[in-house]
Design brief:
The chain contains no helices and 6 strands. By secondary structure, it is an all-beta fold. 16% of the residues are buried.
Amino acid sequence: MDIALLTLNDFDPHLNKVFTIQISDEIQLDAELIEVTKLNNYSPLERSPFSIVFRTEQKNEYYQQGIFTIIHPQKGNLELFLSPLGFDSFGMRYEAVFS
């Protein structure tokens, strides 16, 4: 799947659903999609920019930003650049931005 073709509509129906983030061959995390946000469009591209935020149950540790495999229920495996946003009262949050 070409991530340049993904839109907000590919994620919005899956809000509050659990995805899998594959950190490595040995490590997979359940991650709830907790935010899908349309961003201001300053780009000449057809796709409107958006961001998504996942929350894992990690309480004390987190993974540095990098490219990880997200397993999407309809789109399959997606290689996305995730950045840690910090902990909230439920766990660690990771964001992907599509511009």
